[in-house]
Protein backbone atom coordinates (compact mmCIF):
# COMPACT_ATOMS: atom_id res chain seq x y z
CA UNK A 1 0.00 0.00 0.00
CA UNK A 2 1.20 3.53 -0.67
CA UNK A 3 0.34 6.00 2.08
CA UNK A 4 -0.53 9.45 0.78
CA UNK A 5 -0.24 12.48 3.01
CA UNK A 6 -1.92 15.73 2.05
CA UNK A 7 -4.28 17.85 4.05
CA UNK A 8 -7.50 15.94 4.64
CA UNK A 9 -6.26 13.09 2.46
CA UNK A 10 -4.18 11.57 5.25
CA UNK A 11 -4.16 7.82 5.45
CA UNK A 12 -5.03 6.10 8.69
CA UNK A 13 -2.20 6.03 11.19
CA UNK A 14 -2.16 2.25 11.31
CA UNK A 15 -1.77 2.10 7.58
CA UNK A 16 1.06 4.62 7.67
CA UNK A 17 2.94 2.56 10.18
CA UNK A 18 3.07 -0.41 7.86
CA UNK A 19 3.29 1.31 4.50
CA UNK A 20 6.67 1.12 2.73
CA UNK A 21 7.05 4.87 2.26
CA UNK A 22 10.33 5.13 4.20
CA UNK A 23 13.58 3.76 2.88
CA UNK A 24 16.35 3.83 5.48
CA UNK A 25 19.98 4.45 4.64
CA UNK A 26 19.45 4.46 0.89
CA UNK A 27 20.67 7.27 -1.34
CA UNK A 28 18.13 9.30 -3.22
CA UNK A 29 17.67 8.42 -6.85
CA UNK A 30 18.36 12.07 -7.62
CA UNK A 31 21.01 14.14 -5.85
CA UNK A 32 19.50 15.75 -2.77
CA UNK A 33 20.35 19.00 -1.04
CA UNK A 34 20.62 19.61 2.69
CA UNK A 35 18.19 22.25 3.93
CA UNK A 36 19.78 25.35 5.43
CA UNK A 37 19.61 25.40 9.25
CA UNK A 38 17.91 28.80 9.14
CA UNK A 39 14.84 27.15 7.61
CA UNK A 40 14.61 24.51 10.34
CA UNK A 41 12.63 25.32 13.48
CA UNK A 42 14.24 23.75 16.54
CA UNK A 43 13.00 23.43 20.11
CA UNK A 44 14.81 22.22 23.20
CA UNK A 45 18.29 22.43 24.63
CA UNK A 46 20.82 21.52 21.98
CA UNK A 47 24.12 22.71 20.56
CA UNK A 48 25.21 23.37 17.00
CA UNK A 49 27.81 20.83 15.95
CA UNK A 50 30.94 22.09 14.15
CA UNK A 51 30.52 19.27 11.61
CA UNK A 52 27.00 20.47 10.86
CA UNK A 53 23.65 19.86 12.48
CA UNK A 54 22.87 19.75 16.19
CA UNK A 55 23.73 17.68 19.26
CA UNK A 56 21.16 16.82 21.95
CA UNK A 57 20.94 14.65 25.07
CA UNK A 58 17.59 15.67 26.60
CA UNK A 59 14.44 13.82 25.57
CA UNK A 60 11.78 15.53 23.50
CA UNK A 61 14.09 17.88 21.58
CA UNK A 62 12.62 18.35 18.12
CA UNK A 63 13.18 19.90 14.70
CA UNK A 64 10.53 20.92 12.18
CA UNK A 65 10.63 21.75 8.48
CA UNK A 66 7.93 23.01 6.13
CA UNK A 67 8.45 22.15 2.48
CA UNK A 68 6.77 21.69 -0.87
CA UNK A 69 7.56 18.41 -2.54
CA UNK A 70 6.92 14.68 -2.51
CA UNK A 71 9.93 13.38 -0.53
CA UNK A 72 12.12 14.34 2.41
CA UNK A 73 15.22 12.81 3.91
CA UNK A 74 16.32 12.92 7.55
CA UNK A 75 20.03 12.51 8.23
CA UNK A 76 21.10 11.47 11.73
CA UNK A 77 24.42 10.42 13.24
CA UNK A 78 23.58 8.44 16.37
CA UNK A 79 24.03 4.91 17.70
CA UNK A 80 22.20 5.31 21.02
CA UNK A 81 18.82 6.99 20.60
CA UNK A 82 15.42 6.25 19.16
CA UNK A 83 13.84 8.98 17.03
CA UNK A 84 10.27 9.61 15.94
CA UNK A 85 9.64 10.91 12.43
CA UNK A 86 6.30 12.56 11.67
CA UNK A 87 4.79 13.94 8.50
CA UNK A 88 1.83 16.31 8.79
CA UNK A 89 1.33 15.29 12.41
CA UNK A 90 1.32 11.52 11.84
CA UNK A 91 3.98 8.99 12.71
CA UNK A 92 5.66 7.53 9.64
CA UNK A 93 8.77 5.98 11.15
CA UNK A 94 10.40 5.12 14.46
CA UNK A 95 14.13 5.21 13.79
CA UNK A 96 16.13 2.76 15.89
CA UNK A 97 19.83 2.95 16.77
CA UNK A 98 22.21 1.38 14.27
CA UNK A 99 25.62 0.57 15.70
CA UNK A 100 26.90 -0.53 12.28
CA UNK A 101 25.86 2.66 10.50
CA UNK A 102 25.34 5.52 12.94
CA UNK A 103 25.26 8.21 10.23
CA UNK A 104 22.51 7.54 7.75
CA UNK A 105 19.65 9.20 5.90
CA UNK A 106 16.09 7.95 6.19
CA UNK A 107 13.85 8.90 3.27
CA UNK A 108 10.10 9.32 3.14
CA UNK A 109 8.78 9.22 -0.42
CA UNK A 110 5.51 8.90 -2.31
CA UNK A 111 3.98 11.92 -0.61
CA UNK A 112 1.32 13.76 -2.53
CA UNK A 113 3.13 16.68 -4.12
CA UNK A 114 2.32 19.77 -2.11
CA UNK A 115 3.07 21.46 1.20
CA UNK A 116 4.06 19.22 4.12
CA UNK A 117 5.48 19.55 7.60
CA UNK A 118 8.09 17.08 8.82
CA UNK A 119 9.13 16.83 12.44
CA UNK A 120 11.89 14.77 14.03
CA UNK A 121 11.65 14.13 17.79
CA UNK A 122 14.32 12.62 20.02
CA UNK A 123 12.27 9.92 21.74
CA UNK A 124 14.77 8.88 24.39
CA UNK A 125 17.10 10.45 26.92
CA UNK A 126 20.85 9.92 26.53
CA UNK A 127 22.73 11.65 29.37
CA UNK A 128 26.01 9.90 28.51
CA UNK A 129 25.82 10.14 24.71
CA UNK A 130 24.74 13.09 22.61
CA UNK A 131 22.63 12.24 19.58
CA UNK A 132 23.29 14.22 16.40
CA UNK A 133 20.67 15.37 13.93
CA UNK A 134 22.57 16.40 10.81
CA UNK A 135 20.02 17.81 8.35
CA UNK A 136 16.80 17.52 6.45
CA UNK A 137 17.31 16.76 2.74
CA UNK A 138 15.14 17.65 -0.24
CA UNK A 139 15.31 16.48 -3.83
CA UNK A 140 15.56 18.86 -6.80
CA UNK A 141 12.22 20.49 -7.50
CA UNK A 142 11.29 20.61 -3.81
CA UNK A 143 11.27 23.86 -1.87
CA UNK A 144 11.93 24.53 1.81
CA UNK A 145 9.53 27.08 3.30
CA UNK A 146 10.03 29.57 6.08
CA UNK A 147 9.15 28.16 9.52
CA UNK A 148 5.83 28.98 11.13
CA UNK A 149 5.87 31.45 13.99
CA UNK A 150 6.79 29.84 17.30
CA UNK A 151 3.94 28.80 19.56
CA UNK A 152 3.10 31.48 22.09
CA UNK A 153 2.35 28.99 24.87
CA UNK A 154 5.36 27.31 26.45
CA UNK A 155 5.73 24.71 29.21
CA UNK A 156 8.90 23.47 30.86
CA UNK A 157 8.84 20.00 32.41
CA UNK A 158 11.47 19.16 35.03
CA UNK A 159 11.65 15.68 36.44
CA UNK A 160 12.98 12.15 36.48
CA UNK A 161 12.10 8.88 34.74
CA UNK A 162 8.36 9.53 35.08
CA UNK A 163 8.71 12.79 33.15
CA UNK A 164 11.10 11.14 30.68
CA UNK A 165 8.41 8.48 30.03
CA UNK A 166 10.83 5.66 30.76
CA UNK A 167 9.51 2.34 29.47
CA UNK A 168 6.03 3.75 28.87
CA UNK A 169 5.33 1.68 25.75
CA UNK A 170 6.14 -1.64 27.39
CA UNK A 171 3.56 -4.33 28.06
CA UNK A 172 5.79 -5.89 30.70
CA UNK A 173 7.45 -4.60 33.86
CA UNK A 174 10.52 -6.76 33.20
CA UNK A 175 12.76 -5.04 30.64
CA UNK A 176 16.43 -5.27 29.75
CA UNK A 177 18.47 -2.11 29.25
CA UNK A 178 18.04 -2.13 25.46
CA UNK A 179 14.35 -2.90 25.85
CA UNK A 180 13.87 0.14 28.10
CA UNK A 181 15.14 2.42 25.33
CA UNK A 182 13.17 0.60 22.66
CA UNK A 183 9.97 0.88 24.71
CA UNK A 184 10.36 4.56 25.63
CA UNK A 185 8.58 7.22 23.60
CA UNK A 186 8.57 10.71 25.08
CA UNK A 187 5.83 11.77 22.65
CA UNK A 188 3.47 9.35 24.38
CA UNK A 189 4.46 10.59 27.84
CA UNK A 190 2.35 12.94 29.93
CA UNK A 191 4.59 15.93 29.22
CA UNK A 192 4.24 16.01 25.44
CA UNK A 193 0.60 14.88 25.55
CA UNK A 194 -0.20 17.76 27.91
CA UNK A 195 1.65 20.32 25.80
CA UNK A 196 -0.10 19.14 22.64
CA UNK A 197 -3.53 19.27 24.32
CA UNK A 198 -2.82 22.88 25.30
CA UNK A 199 -1.26 23.79 21.93
CA UNK A 200 1.98 24.68 23.69
CA UNK A 201 5.64 24.16 22.90
CA UNK A 202 7.55 22.04 25.39
CA UNK A 203 10.98 21.54 26.84
CA UNK A 204 11.69 18.47 28.92
CA UNK A 205 14.60 18.37 31.35
CA UNK A 206 14.29 14.94 32.89
CA UNK A 207 16.87 12.35 33.90
CA UNK A 208 15.99 8.85 35.02
CA UNK A 209 17.23 7.95 38.48
CA UNK A 210 17.99 11.53 39.46
CA UNK A 211 16.63 13.04 42.63
CA UNK A 212 16.55 16.62 43.77
CA UNK A 213 18.90 15.79 46.64
CA UNK A 214 19.21 11.99 46.66
CA UNK A 215 19.25 9.71 43.63
CA UNK A 216 17.44 6.38 43.47
CA UNK A 217 18.65 4.04 46.25
CA UNK A 218 21.20 6.64 47.31
CA UNK A 219 23.40 6.00 44.27
CA UNK A 220 25.93 8.39 42.69
CA UNK A 221 26.11 10.70 45.68
CA UNK A 222 28.35 13.14 43.78
CA UNK A 223 25.51 14.16 41.47
CA UNK A 224 21.79 14.92 41.47
CA UNK A 225 19.29 17.08 39.63
CA UNK A 226 21.28 20.25 40.35
CA UNK A 227 24.47 19.01 38.72
CA UNK A 228 22.90 18.46 35.30
CA UNK A 229 19.83 20.73 35.06
CA UNK A 230 21.76 23.83 33.95
CA UNK A 231 23.50 22.05 31.07
CA UNK A 232 22.64 22.37 27.41
CA UNK A 233 24.09 18.89 26.95
CA UNK A 234 24.29 16.53 29.89
CA UNK A 235 27.64 15.36 28.53
CA UNK A 236 29.13 18.81 29.21
CA UNK A 237 31.91 18.90 31.78
CA UNK A 238 31.93 22.67 32.35
CA UNK A 239 28.88 23.47 34.46
CA UNK A 240 27.56 27.00 34.38
CA UNK A 241 25.04 27.26 37.20
CA UNK A 242 22.99 29.92 35.43
CA UNK A 243 24.02 30.29 31.77
CA UNK A 244 22.16 33.22 30.30
CA UNK A 245 21.16 31.41 27.10
CA UNK A 246 19.11 28.86 29.03
CA UNK A 247 16.71 31.55 30.18
CA UNK A 248 16.07 33.00 26.72
CA UNK A 249 13.18 30.54 26.34
CA UNK A 250 10.53 31.84 28.71
CA UNK A 251 7.78 29.40 29.70
CA UNK A 252 4.53 30.57 31.26
CA UNK A 253 4.17 27.24 33.09
CA UNK A 254 6.78 25.11 34.86
CA UNK A 255 5.86 21.54 35.84
CA UNK A 256 8.19 19.94 38.40
CA UNK A 257 8.09 16.22 39.11
CA UNK A 258 10.99 15.59 41.49
CA UNK A 259 11.18 13.54 44.65
CA UNK A 260 10.28 10.07 43.42
CA UNK A 261 13.91 8.98 43.58
CA UNK A 262 14.62 10.89 46.78
CA UNK A 263 11.96 9.01 48.74
CA UNK A 264 11.03 5.79 46.92
CA UNK A 265 13.73 3.72 48.64
CA UNK A 266 14.66 3.68 52.35
CA UNK A 267 17.72 5.61 53.46
CA UNK A 268 20.52 3.17 54.17
CA UNK A 269 23.21 3.36 56.82
CA UNK A 270 26.19 5.33 55.64
CA UNK A 271 24.29 7.72 53.39
CA UNK A 272 25.09 11.44 53.83
CA UNK A 273 21.69 12.20 55.43
CA UNK A 274 19.22 10.32 57.56
CA UNK A 275 15.52 10.40 56.67
CA UNK A 276 14.82 13.57 58.68
CA UNK A 277 17.78 15.47 57.24
CA UNK A 278 16.83 14.30 53.75
CA UNK A 279 13.32 15.74 54.08
CA UNK A 280 14.73 19.08 55.28
CA UNK A 281 17.36 19.23 52.54
CA UNK A 282 14.76 18.33 49.93
CA UNK A 283 12.44 21.13 51.07
CA UNK A 284 15.24 23.70 51.14
CA UNK A 285 16.52 22.73 47.70
CA UNK A 286 13.01 22.70 46.22
CA UNK A 287 12.29 26.19 47.56
CA UNK A 288 15.57 27.43 46.09
CA UNK A 289 14.72 25.93 42.69
CA UNK A 290 11.30 27.57 42.64
CA UNK A 291 12.83 30.92 43.60
CA UNK A 292 15.49 30.61 40.90
CA UNK A 293 12.96 29.79 38.20
CA UNK A 294 10.47 32.42 39.33
CA UNK A 295 13.13 35.08 38.89
CA UNK A 296 14.49 33.65 35.62
CA UNK A 297 11.05 33.18 34.05
CA UNK A 298 9.32 36.25 35.49
CA UNK A 299 6.77 34.62 37.77
CA UNK A 300 5.39 31.62 35.86
CA UNK A 301 2.75 29.21 37.10
CA UNK A 302 4.23 26.22 38.94
CA UNK A 303 2.63 22.78 39.11
CA UNK A 304 4.36 20.51 41.61
CA UNK A 305 3.75 16.80 41.08
CA UNK A 306 3.65 13.98 43.60
CA UNK A 307 2.27 10.48 44.07
CA UNK A 308 1.97 7.89 46.82
CA UNK A 309 5.28 6.19 47.55
CA UNK A 310 6.17 3.39 49.90
CA UNK A 311 8.33 3.79 52.97
CA UNK A 312 6.13 6.36 54.69
CA UNK A 313 4.52 8.28 51.80
CA UNK A 314 6.78 11.26 52.50
CA UNK A 315 6.68 13.04 49.15
CA UNK A 316 3.05 14.13 48.98
CA UNK A 317 2.98 15.92 52.38
CA UNK A 318 6.22 17.75 51.54
CA UNK A 319 4.87 18.96 48.19
CA UNK A 320 1.59 20.09 49.78
CA UNK A 321 3.55 22.01 52.41
CA UNK A 322 5.74 23.63 49.77
CA UNK A 323 2.66 24.95 47.98
CA UNK A 324 1.15 26.18 51.25
CA UNK A 325 4.35 28.02 52.10
CA UNK A 326 4.47 29.58 48.65
CA UNK A 327 0.93 30.88 49.10
CA UNK A 328 1.72 32.15 52.61
CA UNK A 329 4.66 34.08 51.17
CA UNK A 330 2.36 35.79 48.68
CA UNK A 331 3.07 33.59 45.65
CA UNK A 332 -0.34 32.30 44.60
CA UNK A 333 0.75 30.77 41.28
CA UNK A 334 1.94 27.47 42.76
CA UNK A 335 -0.29 24.39 42.56
CA UNK A 336 0.06 20.79 43.69
CA UNK A 337 -1.06 17.79 41.64
CA UNK A 338 -1.22 14.31 43.15
CA UNK A 339 -1.16 11.56 40.52
CA UNK A 340 -2.80 9.12 42.89
CA UNK A 341 -2.22 5.41 42.46
CA UNK A 342 -0.99 4.44 38.98
CA UNK A 343 -1.06 1.04 37.30
CA UNK A 344 2.69 1.08 36.72
CA UNK A 345 2.78 -1.60 34.04
CA UNK A 346 5.71 -0.09 32.17
CA UNK A 347 9.35 -1.09 32.48
CA UNK A 348 10.42 -1.36 36.12
CA UNK A 349 6.84 -0.64 37.27
CA UNK A 350 6.92 2.80 35.69
CA UNK A 351 3.76 4.39 34.32
CA UNK A 352 2.59 2.74 31.12
CA UNK A 353 0.95 4.41 28.13
CA UNK A 354 -2.49 4.30 29.74
CA UNK A 355 -1.10 5.87 32.92
CA UNK A 356 0.52 8.65 30.92
CA UNK A 357 -2.72 9.45 29.11
CA UNK A 358 -4.47 9.62 32.49
CA UNK A 359 -1.70 11.83 33.91
CA UNK A 360 -1.90 14.13 30.89
CA UNK A 361 -5.64 14.59 31.37
CA UNK A 362 -5.14 15.52 35.04
CA UNK A 363 -2.30 17.89 34.31
CA UNK A 364 -4.03 19.53 31.36
CA UNK A 365 -7.04 20.33 33.50
CA UNK A 366 -4.88 21.65 36.35
CA UNK A 367 -3.03 23.98 33.99
CA UNK A 368 -6.27 25.18 32.44
CA UNK A 369 -7.53 25.97 35.94
CA UNK A 370 -4.37 27.93 36.68
CA UNK A 371 -4.31 29.58 33.23
CA UNK A 372 -7.95 30.39 32.29
CA UNK A 373 -6.85 32.00 29.04
CA UNK A 374 -5.47 28.63 27.93
CA UNK A 375 -8.94 27.04 28.00
CA UNK A 376 -9.58 28.43 24.54
CA UNK A 377 -8.05 26.77 21.54
Shape: globular
Helix content: 10-25%
Distance between the termini: 35 Å
- Taken as a percent bin, the fraction of beta residues is 15-25%
Whole-number mean pLDDT: 89
Number of domains: 2
Number of helices: 8
What CATH architecture label of the largest domain applies?
A: 3-Layer(aba) Sandwich
Q: How many strands, what sense, and barrel or not for the largest sheet?
A: 7 strands, antiparallel
Instruction: Give the H and E element order.
Output: HEEEEEEEEEEEEEEHHEHEHHEHEH
CATH fold-level name of the largest domain: Rossmann fold
How would you classify the helix and strand content by structural class? alpha+beta
Provide the fold topology.
Blueprint lengths: L12 H6 L3 E3 L8 E2 L6 E3 L3 E2 L5 E3 L5 E8 L2 E6 L5 E5 L2 E6 L7 E6 L5 E9 L8 E8 L4 E3 L8 E6 L17 H6 L7 H8 L3 E6 L18 H4 L24 E5 L2 H4 L11 H23 L3 E6 L8 H14 L5 E5 L14 H18 L7
Parallel strand pairs: 14-15, 14-16, 16-17, 17-18
Antiparallel strand pairs: 1-10, 2-12, 3-6, 4-5, 5-12, 6-11, 6-13, 7-10, 7-12, 8-9, 8-11
Amino acid sequence: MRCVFAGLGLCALAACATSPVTLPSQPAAIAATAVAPTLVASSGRMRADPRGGWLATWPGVHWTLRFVGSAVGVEIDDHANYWRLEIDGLLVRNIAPDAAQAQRTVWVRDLVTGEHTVRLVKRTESPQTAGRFVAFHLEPGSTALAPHLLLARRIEFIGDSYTAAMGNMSDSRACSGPEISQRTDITQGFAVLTAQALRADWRIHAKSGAGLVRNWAGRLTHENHGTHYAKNLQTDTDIDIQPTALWDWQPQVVVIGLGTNDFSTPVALGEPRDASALAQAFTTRYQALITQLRQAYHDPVFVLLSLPLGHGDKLRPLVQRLVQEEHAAGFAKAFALDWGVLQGRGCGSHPDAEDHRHMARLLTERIRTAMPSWRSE
